[in-house]
Write a structure and sequence with these properties.
The chain has 403 residues and is of the alpha+beta class. Strands 1, 4, 5, 6, 7, 12, 13, 14, 15 and 16 form a 10-stranded mixed beta sheet that branches. Strands 2, 3, 8, 9, 10, 11, 17 and 18 form an 8-stranded mixed beta sheet that branches. A hairpin with a 5-residue loop joins strand 14 and strand 15. The longest helix is centred in the N-terminal third of the chain and has 25 residues.
Length: 403
Amino acid sequence: MDLQSGYPYSLIRNGLPFNYPWLEADIRTDVAVIGGGISGALAAYALTRAGIPTVVVDARTIGLGSTAASTSLLQYEIDTPLHKLQEKVGIAAANRAYELCAASIGELESICKTLRFPHFEKKHSLYLASYRKDVAGLTKEYQARKTLGLKMDWWDESMVTDKMGFTAPAAIYSHTAAQTDAYLLSHALHQHNIHHGGAVYDRTAVVDMEFRPRSVVLKTAHGQQITARYLVIATGYEVLQYIKLPLLKLNATYAVVSEPNHAVEQWYQDCLIWETKSPYLYMRVTSDHRVLIGGRDEPFYNPARRDKLIHRKAAALEKDLRRKFTELRFQPEFKWAGTFGSTEDGLPFIGTFAPMPHTYFALGFGGNGITFSQIAANIITDLIQGKKNPDADIFSFNRKIRN
């Protein structure tokens, strides 16, 4: 599937930082990971740290799937608000999902420090009520998060105006958030893994799988075989080629980033911004003082239709920004589109799928793809080591979702 197009900011800025070979001979390994984006890279990192020999393969050049199009916001907030998620999956599971997302931001910070990866910035996050009718729901959300012990503040309309310079009926100001560069982080993780005995092969498409009693054999388009004790599938939205179930809805999303602009004083603490309406608008300031805006999602039908809308959507996103920051200089420089999936409850799918033995899935969907990927890396590493992970059931394919 063609997952992104246009000129993704990180890809344009950083190009291809490393080259990886394609597989030219049959190999054996403990774990094979299909997918070299951020999900596969984090899974391989956790496995390698646990001393488990791991090989990553990707049909594309590393990072050029959904990861290249990521806007790299790190938030604990799931696309389904906590108070609504409690109704869908139960209070205990919903609370734990939010706790894990919050904890994963700190874990990602620790990983970046270990890698000496410079592109991680702690941030605050502002969740705006788009309309007055949304205030009641936002109040319930604030109360649910407060009960859980998440660190945040309630902003009324006057505080929003005073702090941000635009009007919104209310907002939640969260103290736990960050931003990174998912594309560069994927490469940094792969380089670390290679240095510690792992292997990464790109332009190596897996075209067939054979499930044996004690192993999985992967066959590549060039005729090579990978024999592994376990398989991790981290292909994101392309998972539908392996699982023929209605797991997710595909959507097209759009983003635009400005030329550098140091005059962002009216933007309080460079916080991440998003809102209650669906689809929601989100924005952040990059480390090199560019303004990045994303959103204007719509159902995904095919890449051609998605790509045809890039310029129109970028113009609409710029108007969205100007409604809030009327004096902010915004000169668009790069614009792009990506494809992402959403699940019924907003949670990822992590773990085993009965028809595919010795196989684990790391499928982080929605706006929390990176934090979900970190959660998946922890759970899958435990399961492969034969440990029971108490959180695995929350994200399993068999979980119950209430309507």
